[in-house]
Amino acid sequence: MIRALCVLLCLATPALAHRLIVFAYAEDGQIVGEAKFGNNRPATVGEVRVESEAEEVLSRAPLGAAGVTRLEVLPEFSAGVVVHVSTEGGHSDYWILTPADLGVTD
Amino acid sequence: MKLSVLIAALLAATPAAAHFGMIIPAETMVNQADGRTLPVRLGFAHPFEPDGMEMAAPESVTVTFEGEATDLTETLATIDFHGAQGFETELDLARPGTYILASTPVPYWEPDEDAFILHYTKTYVSAYDDDSGWDAVLGLKTEIRPLVRPFGIWAGNLFSGQVLVDGAPIPFAEVEVEHYAESPVTAPSELKITQSIVAEADGVIHYTPPAAGWWGFAALTPANYRLEQDGEAKDVELGAVIWVRFEGWGAE
């Protein structure tokens, strides 16, 4: 379950003073990923990866301007995905999108 | 019965009677594993005992996120809050940031004090490791502006805030501080239940709690109006209440 993965990730992710904060949502057939640092400055240099629960990379893109990145929602996302952001400076964070977040109905 | 035993029994039975409006969310820092909703309880109580008092349906309960307030009043359901009526609701945490819960009650008539009590009560919740907006003020009639982030703070850290009425600092405001004893705590004297501090000339207060858990700060000022009770105009005590949860060192 994508929620169980969330628990594991939460336990494994260290909090840093210069921490990265990632949020993602689905809109108009796209995943919109937002990445910023704790001081509210956007993260603009790095990569966004969309991964399955099994950590298979399903899609990837460079971080967009102003820390906002858009990726097309693919059929492979239907079980839920983890949106990972890694900056060139070594910071990383993630946001989990459940099937419901992606508009998938049973 | 020996006199000493009688005195001990009377002391044990008499509450210290500091009133606090209360907003107590289940967590003050929510991560993704906790889910995206958060139960919240509201009450009016002597928090140290803890001893509930009947809370009428509040005039309003709001949550403010990034400067935008959402009215939660219609979502309230009644609960038992330490032996008296309280309320509960559930907060949606849609995205990372700081959510500020606030309650504006209806005036509470306190015959023992021959006055009404009106506690504007608030607390701050961080969602998904984002603390931006923790120092926001809401523009309540009276409130305490946090000068220290009011969540993710260790027991033994200094908490500071500024007492405001109509947005202006109140010099030398009287502030009561009390622990919400979710687990029983014994105080050897009533003076140790409610701590009293006075704001500085710029309305700034400081306090360091001795233990982890919820601590309420109530800045009390007289209203510049009176309300009628049984045909007589009565004083109104305004309270600016903020609830802050202090974490035990090393606690998860």
Q: Keywords for this structure?
A:
heterodimer; A: 106 residues; mainly beta; Immunoglobulin-like; four-stranded antiparallel sheet; three-stranded antiparallel sheet; 1 helix; B: 252 residues; twelve-stranded mixed sheet; five-stranded antiparallel sheet; 21 strands; 4% helix
Mean pLDDT of chain B: 93
Q: Oligomeric status of the shown chains?
A: heterodimer
The ordered string of helix (H) and strand (E) elements of chain A is HEEEEEEE
Overall CATH architecture of chain A: Sandwich
3D architecture notes:
The complex is a heterodimer of chains A (106) and B (252). In chain A, the strands form 2 sheets. Chain A has a 4-stranded antiparallel sheet with strand order 4-3-6-7, with helices on one face. In chain A, strands 1-2-5 form a 3-stranded antiparallel sheet, with no helix packed on it. By secondary structure, chain A is mainly beta. Chain A contains 1 helix and 7 strands, in the order αβββββββ. Chain A is 10% helix and 43% strand. Chain A has one domain (2-97): Immunoglobulins (Immunoglobulin-like, Sandwich), CATH 2.60.40.10. The radius of gyration of chain B is 18 Å and the shape is globular. In chain B, the strands form 3 sheets. In chain B, strands 2, 5, 6, 9, 10, 11, 13, 16, 17, 19, 20 and 21 form a 12-stranded mixed sheet that branches. In chain B, strands 1, 3, 4, 7 and 8 form a 5-stranded antiparallel sheet that branches. In chain B, strands 12, 14, 15 and 18 form a 4-stranded antiparallel sheet that branches. Chain B has 252 residues and is mainly beta. Residues 6-15 of chain B have low confidence and may be disordered. The relative contact order of chain B is 0.18. The longest helix of chain B has 11 residues, at 3-13. Chain B has one domain. In chain B, strand 5 (60-65) and strand 6 form a beta hairpin. Chains A and B meet through helix 1, strand 1 and strand 7 of A and loops of B.
